[in-house]
Amino acid sequence: MNERGREAEARAAAYLQSQGLLILERNWRCRFGEIDLVARDSATIVFVEVRMRASRAFGGAAASIDRAKRRKLIAAANLFLSARRLDAPCRFDALLIEAEGGIEWVRDAFRVD
After folding, report:
1. What is the rounded distance in angstroms from the CA atom of residue 107 to the CA atom of residue 78?
2. 7-41 burial, b for 16+ CB within 10 Å, e for fewer?
3. Tens of pLDDT along 65-95?
4. Contact of 37 with 16, CB cutoff 8 Å
5. How far apart are CA 19 and CA 15, in angstroms?
6. How far out from the chain centre does Cα 34 lie?
7. What is the C-alpha separation between 84 and 91, in angstroms, rounded?
8. Residue 110 in contact with residue 70, Cβ under 8 Å?
9. Of the candidates 110, 42, 30, 44, which has an alpha carbon nearest to the alpha carbon of residue 77?
10. Hey, what long-range contacts does 59-64 have (CB within 8 A, 24 or more apart)?
């Protein structure tokens, strides 16, 4: 990961903490890939994909997470929950970090089909 990516994820974590979420993991890796942030929002486990964008010209955070990426995130999330023996509601969020400084938080960016 490059410096911009680390900075974006640090900003995303700080933002989510300011909104009351507890960060459980950063850059959690497994054989299916990486989950940028894992957080707890009350009783819900939140798997967060962080995206840095120079502009909104090509859609928002949710639009940038294609079907293949969603499959990898779901597989990784299942492994995370299983490895920790967690039986809690969960959701997948996306955080769009704009170069100009704005943050867009997309709760329930996608659902498990």
Report:
1. 19
2. ebbebbbeebeeeebebeebebeeebeebbbbbbb
3. 889 999 999 999 999 999 999 999 999 999 9
4. yes
5. 6
6. 10
7. 17
8. yes
9. 30
10. 60/94, 60/96, 60/104, 60/106, 61/94, 61/95, 61/96, 61/104, 61/106, 61/109, 62/94, 62/106, 62/109, 62/110, 64/94
What the block records as the tokens of 38 is 């894992």
Integer Cα distance of 5 and 51 in angstroms: 8
Distance spanning both ends of the chain, measured CA to CA:
30
Q: For the whole model, what pTM was predicted?
A: 0.90
pLDDT digits (tens, 9 = 90+) for 48-67: 999 887 666 666 556 678 89
Distance CA 47, CA 4 (A): 21
pLDDT of 111 strictly over 90? no
